[in-house]
Amino acid sequence: MSLHLLTDCHVATLVPAPNDPLGLCRDAAVLWDDQDGLLRWVGPRGQLPAGLQAVQHGGQGGWVTPGLIDSHTHLVHGGGRSQEFRLRLHGASYEDIARAGGGIVSTVRATRQASAHELLAQALPRLDSLLAEGVTTVEIKSGYGLDVLSERKSLEVARELASHRAVDVRTTFLGAHALPPEFAGQPEAYIDAVLAMLPELHSLGLVDAVDVFCERIAFSLAQTERVFQSARALGLPVKLHAEQLSDMGGAALAARHQALSCDHLEWLSPEGARAMAQAGTVAVLLPAAFYFLRESRVPPVALLRELGVPMALATDCNPGSAPCASLLLMLSMGCTLFQLTPEEALQGVTCHAARALGLADRGQLQPGLRADLALWPIDHPIDLCYRFGQHHAVRTVQAGRWRSAPFQEAQAHA
Ligand code: NIG
Ligand code: FE
Predict the structure, then answer these.
(1) Which atom of ligand 1 has the smallest separation from the CA of 319?
(2) What is the three-class DSSP state of 192?
(3) C-alpha 72 to ligand 2 mean position (Å)
(4) Which atom of ligand 1 is nearest to the CA of 144?
(5) Dist. CA 163–CA 191, nearest whole Å
């Protein structure tokens, strides 16, 4: 066992105190064990227990936060959709493109054609962008395979990323993302196929949660409920792409199934928000998709705040609505576009993001939780929301181990 002690730093524990939502501690010390990868002690350096034998690290006066958590991505996918971007800039809507056979289905074609090796090679640079910003946990959805072999390939690639980089990957099965061409006009038959894929992928240990895209261009409330019932019967938690383009009532349905999160939510109704508050469902806000689809309706942040619904912020990294792999940019956009406070934005990529994934062992810094840390050369944690499009020379501890820079790891694996 090796203990590690980080001093000459300040810490934002994200454990809230009265009038201090970030749990700030100046001139702090952080102690962890690199064997079990857990935190042993966090607090003011002056109160550190005496006589510790530990490997010493200096933080050069920077700030330590929990390792960041991107709680909603579609990081593993084939190809890109820049031609659709051009069409949208000329006036076509995201829905028009989807109805004309483009959109998600065009990425399904590219993902089916790609080998696992190709998918991995395409996903790694996106993952590296996240890691270079202090991300230590990333959620990755399937949903561009839409048949059992291609969904399996995507989920396996997502899991394999964690053997190439120091990151924890959580995988979500999103078989009900779009209707694949071979099921055109037969959405119920496709839901039957999704229900058949789920136990198979679950038995392979590839599914941490189950998601559905509930929308006019995707699946109905009743179809969503069929998927949720199957997931719950297998003991799997659910999440929902809800009220992104219209108010389908998906959030209330998801809340009835104790969903971990409802994501997007631009069209969320007051009833939906109240249902989420009662169920303890997290609102995962996705400002990159809002920005890139040039939406004008923002999620009801003031109402979510008033009701005490925890809000997370994620990249939604995907080729259609959010070709973005910067979680720090989401901090800026969350504040500027959605009017989150900087404190709420920081909770959104740490403690509330952990909750959106059902993970009680991270997202805050306190003894017994994972030693997932980011050490930032900044004057105050709010700098992470304030500066945008800039590189921070962050250093990261993941599961108790210092992480080398992504490019070094890439070379090590080349
Ligand atoms: O979260 N809304 C559905 N799914 C993705 C977009 C997928 C795509 O366009 O490829 C999203 O925005
Ligand atoms: Fe998404």
Answers:
(1) 10
(2) helix
(3) 6
(4) 10
(5) 32
